[in-house]
Amino acid sequence: MIQLFKIRNARKELKELLHHAKHVRHMHEDVADPKLIDELIVREQSARNARQGRDMKLMRRAGGGLEKICLKVAPPRKHPKMREWVEVLFVALGAAMAIRAYFFQPFKIPTGSMQPTLYGITMRKQTEDESTAFPSRLVRLITKGEVFIQYDNPIDRFAKKMFIGKPYTIRSTADGTIQTRHLANGEIKLVLRDNFNPAMATIFVGNTPQSVPKALIQHCRFGEQIRKGEPLLTGVAKAGDYILVNRMKYNFMRPKRGDIVVFDARDVTRDAYYIKRMVGLPNETISINEPYLLVNGEKATDQRFAKIFQDENYAGYKFASSGGAMKPLIANSEDTIILGAKDYLFFGDNTVNSLDGRYFGTVKQKRLLGSAFFVGMPLDRAGLAETSH
To answer: Integer distance in angstroms from the first to the last C-alpha of the chain?
Structure first.
């Protein structure tokens, strides 16, 4: 009985060697020495014949010879572990690129055109707690009203950046005070220069221009004598939302009004990709009656527009401004945009600060990349794109 088990195991081992030899032959027969391939075929046949019998010594000799010729046909390469890891890395990268191209693609929101649904880069004045915490060895993480004191290690710094933001300081480039002017009614107004940048403004320290974020102008050191190199203001910059875009969706279903969509805008603007809300579908006529969106002369009824029309955090839809570089297509209640059979129209939720279809018009269906469905970062805003705020 023991002998039978030994014979059975020897046959099993030889079967596995034959399977390996067949794989080696198929993988290398077009590049290996033909004589070695011929010898491999002979060794395979010898192993098959030995496997039919009961002589274990013959099976071991046949298996040993088959293993040696396999090593000659496919000699082991140097650093096999490293090669294996490199192969795994390339397979993982290939899979990631395929997922990104055909399934779910990440995008970063750079501007505030979709606020408060989705946030671009935001800036605010640094609080007293944050200003003392940032340079110290202790970190004060302020999240949802609770204060946690932790050591300033890389993990803490990352968490602080995610929840609080990245601190920065703008220093004065000259000596003097910030220029203001007195109006006839006694009001004091800041002297500004329009630099055609929606995020930044130019003020004057003495007679020297100084660029500062528009959102933080009111926090500058007005009325104080400022010396060159001193802080003009301190603030916190928080990264825009990182979102995932479903690139499969529009292969199986039609786009719907109200979808938040990423589209290729190179046909109509200088930027590559925009993210806006779809407001117009093919063969429709779109106009604005502030704060409402009108579709064929009627107010849009999709529930996703209700918050834009009624929520106090939104300003509703506004007419396009005529003071920019692009001539507006909807500057008053009489203006309309008529969509073609394969056209779509997009507005930002924050039309007060949005370059969108009110200026550049419609977008062709082939330019739609997919719909935004999930916010991954910052961590305090993670969740579904429509409800993360």
So the answer is: 74
